[in-house]
Design goal:
single chain, about 100 residues, mainly alpha
Length: about 100
C-alpha cells in the first residue's frame, strides 16, 4: 500500500530518498533536459512526434535509473502528479546546486 501524502512539501523528501543514487539523478537530469528540448522542438515544428519523443526521453531515462541503479519502483506508478512535479523541482535543485548530480 503506497504511503499517503497530504502535500507536495511532504512528498518531496520521500521523492529525493528514492533518488539517492547519483547515476539515477544524472539520468533524470539528462532525460528531463532532453524532454524540454523535444517539447520546444515540438512547439516550433508543430510536430506530435517530438512531443512523444519528450515523453520517451523524460520517462525512459528516469525508469532506466530506477530499475538498474536505484533498484526501486519509480514513484510515477504510485504518485503520478507529485512525481511529475518532483522531477522538475529536482531538476531545478540540481541546476541551482542544492542537489549534487
Amino acid at each position: 500500500m503506497p504511503q499517503a501524502f497530504s502535500s507536495f512539501r511532504e512528498f518531496y523528501p520521500y521523492y529525493l530518498a528514492e533518488h539517492s543514487h547519483i547515476v539515477c539523478r544524472r539520468l533524470h537530469y539528462a532525460g528531463s533536459s532532453l524532454a524540454l528540448i523535444c517539447l520546444l522542438t515540438a512547439l516550433v515544428r508543430g510536430s506530435v512526434w517530438w512531443g512523444l519523443a519528450a515523453l520517451f526521453c523524460g520517462y525512459g531515462f528516469a525508469w532506466i535509473g530506477h530499475f538498474f541503479f536505484e533498484k526501486n519502483r519509480p514513484a510515477t506508478f504510485s504518485y503520478p502528479f507529485y512525481s511529475f512535479a518532483g522531477d522538475w523541482v529536482m531538476l531545478r535543485d540540481m541546476l541551482i546546486g542544492r542537489i549534487q548530480f
